[in-house]
């Protein structure tokens, strides 16, 4: 199958799913974007707001105003009722632990503690500073309920590509911070979407933003000789568990098709030797 055939299938899937959809796929080796659909649409971010919070934390570390080793007390008042990682009650956590719980386990409590530490204004200034022009964080995550027509936390698929490509290319911030962020996404714990139908042992640096009204996923696939970014955002104001499951399965079908496309492409194999010890973002992990 070629890109023309895949694009037709992508469009059929997009039009079949409930709600609005944004898709963008970029080949990091060629720099081309073979397919995109409404990538600049501003949508409710759901848990994708945690990427903006991570960016702000990296900025604060870069500016010398915070260190990963700094510890803060997380009081019981700040712990969401459905938290798993923080269910032990009030404890001291380092910034590194908070960032890890937020990205690796998708913990809302960790995200909200970081919001308290840095402030919403600072987070949004960092987004603008680094080109995430459609991204804003205006309220806490998780237990806070937002009315259907009040879209306080927003982003776009293009903004998330800007972030992931920046850490992949080591251009968003100094290399150690980009690698630090990239390794967190490699540890993200979720197989409901892109890797649902892929049984192979592959590296993916992904993040899933599923909530009641949105079903988002974005990240980088690190295949033996090619890397690519893929994002699918689905916003459904009338979302139900059934429509969310349908969205997850749609993400899985398209991701599996894209993955198999690269497995079958001889011209996707680079001439560079495979180096499993190469740094993050450079010819393979």
Would you summarize the structure shown here?
With 285 residues, the chain is of the alpha+beta class. The chain has helices at 3-16, 49-62, 95-104, 108-118, 120-129, 157-168, 175-186, 241-264, and strands at 20-27, 35-37, 43-44, 71-74, 91-94, 154-155, 203-208, 214-223, 226-235.
Low-confidence stretches: 144-150
* Shape assignment: globular
CATH architecture of the largest domain: 3-Layer(aba) Sandwich
Rg (CA only): 18 Å
Instruction: Give the ordered list of helices and strands.
Output: HEEEHEEHHHEHHEEEH
Strand order of the largest sheet: 2-1-9-8-7
- What portion of residues is helical? 25-40%
Derived structural class: alpha+beta
Output the number of helix runs: 8
CATH superfamily of the largest domain: DD-peptidase/beta-lactamase superfamily
Q: For the report, how would you describe the main beta sheet?
A: 5 strands, antiparallel
CATH class of the largest domain equals: Alpha Beta
Task: Supply the number of structural domains.
Answer: 2
Query: What fraction of the residues are assigned to beta strands by DSSP?
Result: 15-25%
